[in-house]
Amino acid sequence: MTLTFHSNLLKDLSLILNDADDYDVIIEVGENQNIKEFRAHSVILRARSPYFKGALSANWITKKDDMIMFNKPNVTSTVFEMILKYFYTGEIDFTKQSDVDILGFLVATDELLLEELFEHVQDYLINEKTSWIDENLVLVLHAVFKLDNCKKLHDYCLDSICEDPLQFFTSDDFPSINKEIFLGLLKRDDLQIKEIAIWEYLIKWGIEQTPDLRNNKAEWNNESHEVLKKTLDQFIPLIRFVGISREEFFDKVRPYKAIIPNHIYEEIEEFYYKDNLPKTTILPPRTGFSNNSTGNFKSKIINKKLANIIVNWIDKKDAEYARTINDPSYKFKLIYLGSRVGINNELFKIKCNGRLASLVLVKGKKSNKIFGGYSSIGFNKLGDQCLIENNIRYYHSTDNFIFSFENSEDAQNMKIGRVINKQKAILEYFNNGFNFGWGSFCMYSHQNFQVNNRDFYEEISPYYIYDTISEIETFIIIKR
């Protein structure tokens, strides 16, 4: 029989960290006015970190009065305090830490070769700190782009930029973006912005890297163009010139002819004036889709092909209509994910309210089928302009529709039902999360939904459907 007493073990180790007087290592962290000393035990550090196992070996240590002295100027005191607590107790608590310190903690765990902890922190940031990451993309990218193990967070940042490039390119942080990060971004096929805009922001970035070029362009000389050409020599081949119109080329690209290599410029001219497709030098247009399975459209229920079909329906076009990927019209912003926060009517109403064009996706537990609905006016708290019957509020929309897919990838057996009774396109009812028409497609009894056509929407099922929700997502649909 084996007995374990982990709680007392952790308590005793915590006391060693905080109160012991037999430490043999002094670690100085931070720099300038933010230096702080920590006392620790070499045996604990060596046992808990492969980095310290090597760094504290006899061949590398520096001693003073029989005390091992160690410096880590690239780690803040807050971050190192978290690391020591992990070393001695195995505990990590992010609830009282700033997002910047959690990012710093991630970088430190990579340097200290704490692989298991590194993966946990990376997943925590992606799953719990998405809003902060999206608001600080340049900061996060600069922190992680050189970390080989941080591909997941690195790709998340690039996916977010590709999904909403204008927010990134127009931010105050854009001119400071690292060259290697910018190169990686321009290599992406799924950068959803007009190619001429990419060109203009590239020129802006190049000028910002060279203060002498910030004066009036009319004052530039041949040397000025040579400096800019040298700055952008690796970027120019990544521009998809075939996605730029003749007019845009004439007005916005041609004035910078001097910075474009001759062999590329000749191929551009041949394309524009002879309609000959580029041979080998110029890259093809961006597709608007990334190579990974989820790409910039982050859904657990459908893939991007089905999302593209829904966008075509929003535009009142056929499902197979070929949209112009270089000029994406919509952004999907996830505001409610059932598996993350819980599935019930009240949570849906809290997360999904206001007159905002919205898309709801539901996956059935029994059928495994996917049902959804688009409401150009949102779902809840829609205001006083409504039709009231028997204390039920009905709201008007000419653009709403409901739909179904057989599974997350099947684009052949889909059904769409557009609104028929436009005065009663959406109703608000106390025990419904959402309700298209009177039960045409609605969420009721917290985790259940039904499809029950009653002349409010065109039919998407010949029979009534009652099922339990296994996953639900709601997106705000933003017209660019």
Automatic annotation (TrEMBL):
SMART domains in the cross-refs: BACK, BTB
Domain BTB as annotated: residue spans: 23-96
TLDc domain location: 300-480
Coiled-coil stretches: none
Signal peptide stretch: none
Gene3D superfamilies: 1.25.40.420, Potassium Channel Kv1.1, Chain A
InterPro entries with a match to the protein in the record: BACK, BTB-POZ/Galectin-3-binding, BTB/POZ_dom, SKP1/BTB/POZ_sf, TLDc_dom
Protein name: BTB domain-containing protein
Organism: Rhizophagus clarus
